[in-house]
Amino acid sequence: MTVPVTTPVSTAAPSPQLGAFLRAHRELLRPGDVGLTATARRRTPGLRREEVASLSGVGLAWYTWLEQGRVTASRQVLAALARTLRLDPVEVRHAMRLAGHHEPASPAGDGDAALAPVVQPVLDAWPASPAVLLDRHFDVLAWNSAWAALWGSPGEVAPCRRNLLWLMAADERLHTVLPDWVPLAMNVFQHFRAQAGAALSEDRTAQVYRALEEDVPELSHWWGCRSVAELTARTLTVRPPGGGAMDLSLSSFHPVDDPSALILLFTPPTAADRARMNDLVAG
Length: 283
Fold this sequence. Notes:
Blueprint: H1 16-28, H2 49-56, H3 60-67, H4 75-84, H5 89-98, H6 112-124, E1 131-134, E2 140-143, H7 145-151, H8 164-170, H9 172-177, H10 182-196, H11 203-215, H12 220-224, E3 234-238, E4 246-253, E5 262-267, H13 271-282
Antiparallel strand pairs: 1-2, 1-5, 3-4, 4-5
Helix pairs in contact: 2-4, 4-5, 5-10, 7-13, 8-10, 8-11
GO molecular function: DNA binding
Protein name: Transcriptional regulator, XRE family
Domain HTH cro/C1-type: 21-92
């Protein structure tokens, strides 16, 4: 028997992004996935709203409003919905952040000017490892000489497009240096959605998406998708200017001064790769 769950709202504003995310996952499930029997007359893709509401112990009207972005939910209610919708841990964190249950972020732009000078010496301490600092919108705040030598200087990109999402999807130099760029680019978009939380609904994110729509409309399904994932460590083979190839190992971490920011680090794994990267920086 389903135990009814109280449906208090969180203190955050209602989120259309949360409603769309829940609806997308509801439509992916089949009745058999949750122990229900499918009928021949079923016309709704996936589960019906009333089925999700009943299995989660919430009211149908309230769940409908949640998908419509008219209300938001407490952690307890979202946890119940997550179990019904079979969300994995990354998707649960994403839903929580969309509902406002995440580490508080400073208003757009606040703290960015102070964070970049603090982190810049850290980036510069890796002279043979391309490194970059991103804010919660994935705007590029700072980078080191190795990053500029390999990928090109972000300072040469228009400020409205100085964003990792745009660089991954639309920058021709990056695509030349990293021929197999699509898997990493897709993972970057998934990770952005997973960690962005309220930033997904902010004006800066809309501006980045408009720039992408103008420059690479054929990839619009990337920013229209609802899938989320962590940015996984991996080894990439790059072909920098001047010929030749080398490997770089990708890792990422959050600066302690701002957990909503992100540092990406590409480390040469062998002595030969480090020598190649040092030559590129010196050149």
